[in-house]
């Protein structure tokens, strides 16, 4: 089994980090720090709670003077355990650096620390408390020479960042985000462009018409921007938004016929797979986006549809293409299955073209 991300914060890695700190700041109490952080609650803590526990431990054993504490962290960050461990440093800023008198120190520290591990979570309380001021800073970051800082400008203001504190004001009105996305829409870094796309996708969940207008305005002018638009509209495409489907040429569903839709077995055992096959035929040359939806039974007995993409192709006049697919019903960390009557549906250019029921049972 793969190691959980939270387990990278363990006795070995924390001791290593503490020893690096002590080499710079001799009064740092390594053993006391470890005992404080890895107390009786440690094993039950999830990732973000562990990060916060470590930050609070640093706050206890580093100097009380915030500027002095930052100067120590500045000297040790490059030598601490690599990878995700760097998230501790911006979290320390989030915990101890939100006083008005420390604003400039904190903003500069977040800019320095984000290349080691993104400060996307740490900036969010600053946005919530000082939205106009912080968004001006985020725009400044969007013009930074470092791709990690530019990405922070977009990722930090995503309205619905996974694991992050929701920015409810931007869920209601995402307008303050748009100048940053506009600035970054042709960014040379794929790392930055992916963040811009994810930000657009977040916005699309509450303001689909706005994202559709942006997509129509941006698409077809730049290769980098085209990728952003397509990835940023993925939820709208799955939802069958006709305007967005048309932007990418998937507007014609009537010219595509679905034949020989076969689903087996009719009863699927939990942990096993469903197999389905079908053929599509084009009456004329047509761009085709193929998906399938499964109406899953939830714990409360109600059903919820999940969409899965099959392919995007162009079919010539009278061309046929045959597909066979498998879908697993093994439980995963992201999805638990429940017995009952499920439905699988084929979707062509956003339009359902056939469906069949099947039963999921437990061993």
Would you kindly provide a written description of the structure presented here, covering whatever features stand out?
It comes from Faecalicatena faecalis. This is DNA alkylation repair protein. The chain has 363 residues and is α+β, with helices and mostly antiparallel strands. It has 2 domains: 5-194, no CATH class; 256-361, Immunoglobulins (Immunoglobulin-like, Sandwich). Helix content is 42%, strand content 21%. The protein contains 16 helices and 8 strands. It has helices spanning 11-24, 30-37, 47-61, 66-76, 88-96, 103-113, 123-129, 131-141, 147-155, 168-172, 178-184, 190-204, 208-218, 223-232, 234-238, 242-247, and strands at 256-264, 267-269, 273-282, 286-297, 303-315, 320-328, 340-348, 351-361. A 5-stranded mixed sheet has the order 2-8-7-4-5, with no helix packed on it. A 3-stranded antiparallel sheet has the order 1-3-6, with no helix packed on it. Helix 2 (30-37) packs antiparallel against helix 3, helix 7 packs across helix 8 and helix 9 (147-155) packs parallel to helix 12 (190-204). 34% of the residues are buried. The mean pLDDT is 95.
């Amino acid at each position: 089994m793969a190691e959980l991300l939270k387990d990278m914060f363990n006795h070995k890695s924390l001791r290593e980090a503490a020893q690096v700190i002590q080499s710079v700041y001799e009064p740092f109490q390594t053993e006391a720090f470890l005992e404080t952080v890895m107390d009786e609650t440690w094993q039950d803590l999830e990732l973000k709670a562990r990060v916060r526990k470590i930050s609070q431990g640093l706050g206890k054993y580093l100097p009380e003077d915030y500027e002095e504490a930052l100067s120590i962290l500045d000297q040790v960050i490059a030598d601490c355990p690599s990878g995700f461990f760097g998230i501790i440093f911006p979290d320390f800023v989030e915990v101890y650096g939100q006083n008005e008198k420390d604003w400039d120190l904190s903003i500069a520290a977040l800019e320095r620390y984000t290349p080691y591990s993104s400060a996307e979570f740490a900036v969010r309380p600053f946005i919530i408390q000082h939205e106009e001021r912080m968004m001006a800073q985020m725009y400044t970051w969007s013009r930074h020479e470092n791709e990690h800082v530019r990405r922070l400008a977009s990722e930090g203001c995503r309205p619905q960042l996974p694991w992050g504190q929701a920015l409810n004001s931007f869920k209601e009105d995402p307008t303050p985000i748009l100048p940053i996305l506009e600035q970054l829409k042709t960014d040379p870094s794929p790392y930055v462009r992916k963040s811009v796309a994810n930000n657009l996708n977040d916005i699309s969940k509450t303001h689909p018409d706005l994202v559709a207008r942006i997509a129509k305005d941006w698409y077809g002018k730049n290769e980098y921007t085209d990728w952003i638009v397509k990835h940023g509209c993925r939820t709208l495409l799955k939802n069958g938004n006709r305007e967005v489907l048309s932007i990418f040429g998937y507007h014609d569903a009537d010219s595509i016929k679905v034949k020989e839709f076969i689903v087996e077995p009719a009863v699927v055992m939990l942990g096993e797979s469903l197999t389905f096959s079908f053929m599509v035929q084009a009456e004329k040359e047509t761009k085709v986006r193929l998906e399938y939806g499964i109406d899953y039974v939830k714990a409360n007995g109600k059903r919820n549809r999940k969409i899965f993409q099959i392919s995007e192709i162009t079919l010539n006049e009278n061309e046929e293409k045959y597909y066979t697919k498998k879908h697993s019903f093994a439980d995963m960390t992201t999805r638990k299955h429940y017995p009952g009557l499920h439905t699988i549906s084929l979707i062509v250019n956003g339009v359902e073209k056939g469906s069949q029921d099947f039963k999921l049972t437990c061993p």
